[in-house]
Write a structure and sequence with these properties.
alpha+beta; 3-methyladenine DNA Glycosylase, Chain A; 8 strands; globular
Length: 198
């Protein structure tokens, strides 16, 4: 049903990719079943010139995926609790990533509800930790190729005609406007401070 985005899509500036992901569908064809959601919020991260980035101090074992081929998943554990899903951007060798912050649930809602322990669709994936849990994403997905199943983003954009809102990223001191979201969409996260870094 869905066609994965090609690698060339991700081999671009992180902010361009983040903006262009809005309205497309994140799909996970997992062992428990299919889940999917429309991307309604994303943040762009760069490399050694970005103090909010995991690559700010250079290449390490933890962030090596960010230096690899674009289109791969970069998943890390925040505060030992939440897995955060990013997709690697920029040409190979130049670190960059886009953090997927919120989804509008589309398929597999019962499975998402079971994973999250909530039934309100507005709370299923409205935040990066919630998103990963609802979609069944964890550290085992770090480094996998997101240009093909089981975890990928659709070439098709099914949300159309929306206005893109742009703000600084959530909870980081760097104030560059690198957070993009679908203006007025009720599934966008409502952070109360404390932000993930990528």
């Amino acid at each position: 049903m869905w066609t994965p985005l090609p690698r060339e899509f991700y081999s671009r500036d992180s902010a361009q990719v983040a903006r262009d992901l809005l309205g497309r569908v994140l799909i996970h064809e997992g062992p428990e079943g299919l889940t999917s959601g429309i991307i309604v919020e994303a943040e762009a991260y760069y490399g050694e010139d970005d103090p909010a980035s995991h690559a700010y101090r250079g290449r390490t074992e933890r962030n090596r995926v960010m230096y690899g081929e674009p289109g791969h998943a970069y998943v890390f554990l925040l505060y030992g609790v939440n897995h955060l899903l990013n997709v690697v951007t920029m040409p190979r060798g130049i670190p960059g990533a886009v953090l997927l912050r919120a989804l509008q649930p589309l398929e597999g809602l019962e499975l998402m509800e079971r994973r999250r322990g909530v039934s309100d669709p507005l709370l299923l994936a409205s935040g990066p930790g919630r998103l990963s849990r609802a979609m069944g994403v964890d550290l085992s997905h770090n480094g996998i190729d997101m240009t093909r199943p089981p975890l990928y983003i659709s070439r098709e954009r099914i949300l159309m005609g929306f206005e893109v809102a742009v703000t600084p990223r959530i909870g980081v001191r760097d104030r560059r406007p690198l957070r993009f979201y679908v203006k007025g969409n009720p599934y966008v996260s409502k952070p109360k401070g404390g932000a993930p870094q990528v």
